[in-house]
Design brief:
Blueprint (H helix, E strand, L loop, with lengths): L2 E7 L3 E8 L4 E8 L3 H4 L1 H16 L8 E6 L5 H14 L4 E5 L1 H9 L5 E6 L3 E6 L4 E6 L11 H16 L8 H9 L6 H8 L4 H5 L2 H9 L3 H24 L7 E6 L2 H4 L1 H14 L3 E5 L5 H12 L7 E2 L3
Parallel strand pairs: 1-4, 4-5, 6-9, 8-11, 9-10
Antiparallel strand pairs: 1-2, 2-3, 6-7, 7-8
Length: about 325
């Protein structure tokens, strides 16, 4: 019986599943984020090595195929870098490196048309249609994009607090919540927390929970931030569906990423909005680890080659 590894490497966490050829998970390992732009090549290599070693454990079984879902591999330079990392780690297995959005889509809509909307530390929408075409929107990283992501929401909250401190913006419950979160007394202390401690994108993304709390209390600023986040995620998802000519066809929007659990209103809002703009579509929250999709693709790869949709050219 052959065995495979399926890995989902995100900005906040990396999950590796060791499974048999029937997709039955035999072991699981977790580590921190493995995003090239956020943590760098050496840290990504360490995380991937450790998570695979732990998942396989003391067994002398070696995987026939490995599927790694990781952000950035649509870019040739990043793809070459990740493949070099996997080669250095040294498993003699068929290695498939794909965008982490594809493994999430495969987990939520295995082998079927669909659009996955990911909001974690970063954000991206990715889809495939019945003809085998793929398209994406977003995924440009926290400096250039990631609209509607945890980082984007957290940064908006920080800015709102500073605007209140400057008397340039309205009062907001976010001020007390963020000062308590960081254990500081004045907004000026945020300078040290953000810059001097080199606060990583995932840490800023964790502030989304504070925004959900303020939103639940009826805070107008938090309401505005989350409505804007919903607008961005909706726009991204529909851009993919339109590009793939899926509007009016039956398919599922799959919501994935930690922000939909940290900020449950975003799930509720997209469940309400998306079927209005895309009739006959459904919306559901991914109810398993995205790494399950990586396992499925690794099994396909072990049996002769996974079917990877090609990006639509237009």
């Amino acid at each position: 019986m052959l065995h495979v590894l399926g890995i989902d490497a995100g900005g906040t966490k990396t999950v590796c599943l060791f499974a048999d050829e029937h997709g039955r998970v035999l072991a699981e390992a977790r580590r921190g984020g493995a995003n090239l732009q956020a943590v760098g090549e050496l840290e990504v290599e360490k995380v991937l090595h450790d998570v695979m070693e732990e998942a396989i454990g003391p067994s002398d079984i070696r995987p026939a195929a490995i599927c790694l879902g990781i952000a950035g591999v649509d870019r040739p330079d990043d793809s070459a870098l990740v493949r070099a990392i996997m080669k250095r780690i040294g498993y003699k297995a068929r290695v498939l490196v794909v965008n982490d959005a594809l493994v999430a889509l495969e987990a939520g809509a295995p082998g079927r048309p669909g659009v996955v909307v990911i909001s974690g530390t970063g954000s991206i929408s990715y889809g495939r249609n019945a003809g085998g075409d793929a398209a994406r929107s977003g995924g440009w990283g926290y400096v250039l994009g990631d609209e509607g992501s945890g980082y984007w929401i957290g940064r908006a909250a920080l800015r709102a607090v500073l605007r209140q401190a400057d008397r340039r913006g309205p009062k907001t419950a976010l001020s007390a919540l963020l000062l308590e979160y960081f254990g500081i007394e004045q907004a000026q202390g945020l300078i040290h927390e953000v810059y001097h401690t080199n606060l990583k994108p995932a840490a800023i993304g964790s502030l989304a929970k504070c925004v959900q709390t303020a939103f639940s209390e009826g805070d107008a600023v938090a309401i505005g931030i989350l409505r804007a986040a919903a607008d961005e995620l909706e726009s991204s998802a529909l851009a993919v569906a339109h590009r793939l000519d899926m509007i009016g066809e039956p398919f599922a929007f799959i919501l994935a990423g930690g922000i939909f659990r940290a900020v449950p209103w975003l799930e509720e809002e997209l469940v309400r909005r998306l079927p209005v703009s895309a009739p006959h579509s459904t919306v559901k929250l991914l109810d398993c680890e995205p790494a399950v999709g990586a396992v499925a693709l690794a099994i396909q790869e072990a049996h002769g080659g996974a079917s990877i949709p090609a990006y639509k050219l237009d």
